[in-house]
């Protein structure tokens, strides 16, 4: 920072800046903004291309390319991580670095930290691209990255970015923090909290760790994180972007600064409670999901307040919107913000959610927000920044306008068919015929019906992607026309005085009241208290943290610490070492991206899949695998429904058993060896997390048990007429896990009280005999358990 | 006795009410901030902050 100085005037007022204010000269660091803008465009192309590829895979399974690394389950996390953290992430960093310097009238606190932040973040993105396709994942949506990368994220986010940002606030030359900065503060503080607490895990190796939470608690933490990642990564920083760049582009101040204050505090305070709406009708306690729904509904009004504030900023400037594609991008972006924030609360209503959950409706909702709000706000900002950053005219305004129109068309062609697909599938799942049987008992029927919509999505996605390519061309050509040397304007602004004296509390207009009433009137009702906060970044940040942390604790503490939330089921035992290895393969292949493991207590579901899922069934599930979308059927009660041979054949070539199946082939699992030696360490870590593994933690015991069970499964496979020589192959471990799924509650409890389980269940019962559930009292009204074995045959 | 059992014995009936009071308190503070009188000038100044980038003079230029 250049801090040339000349003596300025001494402020003589009794309050405000006290002491000498020197006039200082400095320059803004636009080089770092150029880097972030470039990275935004680059990762946008990569992330959306992967998205397009997996969209094609849904309609044309051959697009899996026959390779394990390019299957849907591995690429879908890569797509979501790339577009959220790489594309949107770099976009918000570009916005924050550009606007914070100007709103604070200072260069960033440290150029070194800026560079460390930029390169550190790109390194994290590259590590994601180098791990996710190889099945290195924690198996929690939007938080898939393994523990070493998680630590790097925390360091780069808080250590580099956070310190740099708050350092900049500390050296600012503008006393009042503009509302955009509040949104940035909330983003940094809350994302740190969410990331750290959701990612807590115990490593079993450099590339494998287990979440410290299990089952219901893990699901809660995951969606507390997942929902607030939407709130504090895809909403609040973009609102900061909107509050800065929209007035700049429109050359008009925001319509109502008052409204922006309400918008800020209501979002910060309300959003954080809403996460459980992702878990309606699951094994999450009903009080938590109701709380999530109510707070989600409350979000509608402040969100629309923000949308209206954005749109009304353009009052009297609509003629300019017609002429300027930058404003067009912003208008459509803000409109999609309004649509998504109406739809979100609507989908959180339990009745609506019972239809929409697990269907493409969620996917359409997400993409309306991501393509419309995040994408278009980013594009608008980039087009506004390009001529300023590269100090030349935008290469082609016409190309920018074309991008706007094909992008808009692309969004519509994407979301409308996918809404239709979602509602269609939801209705088909719950349809009964006149005799009270499922109208579409074959799950596959509800998938093939969607194919036309999936093709339409491919067309919409392609158009949107082509728009991005036009941005790439425009950006490169604008960059090519940059001056030989960038002009670096010198900016002058008075430094903040060493001391600032807050204005006195205004006199109360009340008369004849108690002194305390007059004090409340003057300090609080006049808004004096808040104006003081707005000048104090540290206090402001602490209050924001208090708001999000307090709200979180009100939900988290009761959920974690009240035993009755997760009633123990005596017959539920830990996975055997082999099943655990199989579960890890399930996670690595990303099966949870297409299959849920959560049967809701809804008649159509228990009829189709079997007895509804109980909280106590998941106490050893580190991490939970409930899923959020059923591209294939639910697997919560899969154990025993099919023979071992069926599973092996199905993994090898799903289309051989169900010609229309869109599941990729997992033939590589029939070739690759189980890492038996690594199993001991994994069992030990599970035991550390409180899973009662008993004898299995003895050195080498888990490996021995896993080999024995694998031999049993392999022998049974041969007996069923299947392949031989499979006893060391990964597919055996995965099938062992599949055959275990959901069976424990129908097993007799071998202990009368809570399960102390000194030894893990061993596969003494032949895997194939377990297909006949033995209902117990614990299984409760096992109305659907007979359906578990009969209604879903061959449905994949 | 585990923490979970201990918590189960605790009477947490007050929590919903406490959360309600907390929420209502924030709501009141935000409303008050919103309708506070005599801040037209302050609001106007704050809203115009994006247009104050400091006094800009063309620089010498630096290598790219």
Outline the structure in words.
By secondary structure, chain A is mostly helical. In chain A, 57% of the residues lie in helices and 4% in strands. Chain A is built from 26 helices and 9 strands. Chain A has helices at residues 31-59, 72-103, 111-131, 147-170, 179-198, 215-233, 236-250, 257-271, 286-312, 318-323, 325-348, 350-356, 360-390, 397-429, 443-448, 451-480, 515-525, 528-533, 537-561, 577-588, 603-609, 644-652, 654-657, 676-688, 701-719, 730-740, and strands spanning 4-6, 10-11, 16-20, 23-26, 201-205, 208-211, 485-486, 490-494, 499-501. Chain A has a 3-stranded antiparallel sheet, with no helix packed on it. Chain A has a 3-stranded antiparallel sheet with strand order 2-3-9, with no helix packed on it. Residues 1-13 and 751-796 of chain A have low confidence and may be disordered. By secondary structure, chain B is mainly alpha-helical. The mean pLDDT of chain B is 72. The radius of gyration of chain B is 26 Å and the shape is elongated. Chain B contains 3 helices and 2 strands; from the N terminus they run αααββ. Classes of the chains: A mainly alpha (796), B mainly alpha (64). At the A-B interface, helix 2, helix 7, helix 8, strand 7 and strand 8 of A face helix 1, helix 2, helix 3, strand 1 and strand 2 of B.
Largest sheet of chain B: none
- Which percent range describes the beta-strand content of chain A? under 5%
**Which geometry of chain B do the CA atoms define?**
elongated
Strand order of the largest sheet of chain A: 1-4-8
Largest pleated sheet of chain A: 3 strands, antiparallel
Number of helices of chain A: 26
Average pLDDT metric of chain A: 89
What is the first-to-last residue Cα distance of chain B?
A: 66 Å
Molecular shape of chain A: globular
Instruction: Provide a count of the helices of chain B.
Output: 3
Q: What is the alpha-carbon Rg of chain A in Å?
A: 28 Å
Q: What structural category do the secondary elements of chain B indicate?
A: mainly alpha
Distance between the termini of chain A: 63 Å
Structural class by sheet pairing and helices of chain A: mainly alpha
Please tally the β strands of chain B and state the result. 2
Assembly annotation: heterodimer
What Rg of chain B, in angstroms, do the CA atoms define? 26 Å
Estimate the helix proportion of chain A, in percent: 55-70%
- Major protein interface: A-B, 57 and 46 residues
């Amino acid at each position: 920072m250049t801090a040339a100085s000349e003596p300025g005037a001494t402020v003589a007022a009794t309050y405000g800046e006290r002491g000498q204010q020197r006039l200082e000269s400095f320059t803004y660091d636009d080089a770092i903004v150029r880097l972030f803008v470039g990275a935004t465009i680059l990762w946008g192309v990569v992330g959306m291309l992967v998205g397009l590829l997996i969209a094609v895979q849904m309609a044309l399974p051959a697009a899996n390319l026959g390779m394990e690394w390019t299957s849907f389950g591995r690429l879908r996390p890569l797509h979501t991580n790339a577009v959220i953290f790489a594309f949107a992430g770099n976009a918000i960093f570009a916005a924050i670095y550009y606007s914070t310097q100007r709103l604070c009238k200072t260069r960033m606190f440290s150029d070194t930290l800026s560079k460390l932040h930029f390169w550190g973040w790109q390194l994290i993105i590259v590590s994601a691209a180098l791990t996710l396709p190889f099945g290195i994942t924690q198996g929690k949506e939007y938080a898939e990255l393994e523990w070493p990368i998680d630590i790097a994220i925390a360091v780069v986010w808080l250590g580099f970015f956070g310190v740099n940002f708050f350092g900049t606030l500390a050296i600012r030359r503008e006393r009042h923090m503009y509302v955009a900065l509040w949104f940035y503060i909330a983003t940094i503080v809350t994302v740190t909290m969410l990331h750290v607490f959701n990612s807590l895990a115990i490593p079993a190796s450099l590339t494998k760790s287990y979440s410290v939470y299990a089952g219901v608690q893990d699901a809660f933490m995951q969606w507390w994180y997942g929902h607030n990642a939407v709130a504090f990564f895809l909403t609040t920083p973009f609102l900061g972007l909107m509050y800065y760049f929209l007035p700049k582009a429109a050359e008009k101040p925001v319509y109502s600064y008052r409204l922006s204050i309400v918008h800020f505090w209501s979002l910060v305070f309300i959003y954080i409670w809403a996460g459980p709406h992702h878990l309606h009708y699951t094994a999450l306690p009903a009080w938590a999901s109701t709380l999530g729904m109510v707070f989600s509904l409350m979000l509608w009004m402040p969100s629309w307040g923000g949308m209206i504030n954005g749109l009304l900023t353009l009052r009297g400037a609509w003629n300019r919107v017609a002429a300027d594609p930058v404003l067009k991008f912003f208008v459509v972006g803000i409109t999609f913000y309004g649509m998504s924030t109406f739809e979100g609360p609507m989908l959180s209503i339990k009745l609506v959610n019972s239809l929409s959950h697990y269907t493409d409706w969620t996917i359409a909702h997400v993409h309306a927000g991501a393509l419309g709000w995040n994408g278009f706000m980013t594009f608008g900002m980039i087009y506004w920044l390009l001529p300023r950053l590269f100090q030349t005219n935008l290469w082609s305004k016409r190309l920018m306008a074309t991008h706007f129109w094909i992008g808009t068309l692309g969004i519509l062609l994407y979301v409308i068919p996918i809404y239709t697909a979602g509602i269609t599938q939801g209705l088909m799942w719950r349809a009964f015929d006149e005799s009270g049987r499922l109208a579409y008992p074959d799950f596959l029927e509800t998938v093939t019906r969607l194919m036309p919509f999936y093709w339409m999505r491919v067309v919409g996605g392609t158009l949107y992607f082509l728009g991005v390519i036009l941005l790439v061309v425009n950006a490169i050509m604008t960059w090519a026309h940059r001056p030989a040397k960038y002009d670096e304007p010198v900016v002058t602004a008075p430094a903040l005085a060493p001391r600032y004296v807050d204005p006195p509390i205004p006199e109360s207009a009340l008369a004849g009241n108690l002194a305390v009433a007059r004090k409340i009137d003057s300090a609080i009702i006049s808004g004096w208290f808040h104006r003081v906060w707005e000048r104090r970044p540290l206090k402001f940040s602490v209050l924001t943290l208090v708001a999000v942390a307090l709200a979180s604790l009100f939900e988290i503490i009761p959920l974690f610490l009240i035993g009755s939330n997760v009633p123990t089921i005596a017959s539920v035992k830990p996975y055997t070492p082999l099943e655990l290895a199989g579960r890890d393969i399930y996670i690595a292949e990303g099966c949870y991206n297409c299959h849920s493991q959560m049967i809701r207590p809804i008649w159509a579901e228990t009829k189709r899949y079997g007895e509804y899922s109980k909280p106590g069934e998941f106490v050893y599930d580190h991490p939970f695998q409930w899923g959020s979308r059923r591209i294939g059927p639910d697997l919560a009660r899969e154990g025993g429904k099919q023979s071992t041979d069926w599973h092996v054949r199905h993994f090898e070539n799903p289309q051989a058993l169900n010609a229309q199946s869109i599941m990729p082939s997992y033939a590589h699992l029939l070739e690759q060896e189980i890492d038996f030696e690594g199993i001991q360490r994994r069992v030990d870590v599970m035991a550390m997390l409180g899973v009662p593994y008993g004898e299995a933690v003895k050195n080498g015991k888990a490996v021995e048990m896993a080999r024995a069970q694998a031999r049993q499964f392999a022998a049974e496979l041969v007996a069923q007429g299947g392949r031989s020589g499979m006893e060391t192959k990964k597919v055996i471990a995965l099938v062992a896990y599949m055959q275990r799924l959901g069976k424990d509650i129908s097993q007799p409890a071998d202990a009368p009280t809570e399960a102390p389980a000194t030894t893990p269940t061993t596969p003494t019962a032949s895997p194939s005999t377990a297909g006949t559930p033995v209902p117990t009292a614990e299984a409760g009204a096992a109305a659907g358990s007979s359906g578990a074995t009969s209604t879903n045959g061959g449905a994949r | 006795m585990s923490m979970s059992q201990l918590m189960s014995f605790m009477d947490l009936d007050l929590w919903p009410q406490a959360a309600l009071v907390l929420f209502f308190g924030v709501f009141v503070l935000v409303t008050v901030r919103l309708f506070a009188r005599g801040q037209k000038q302050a609001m106007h100044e704050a809203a115009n902050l994006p247009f104050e980038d400091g006094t800009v003079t063309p620089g010498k230029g630096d290598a790219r």
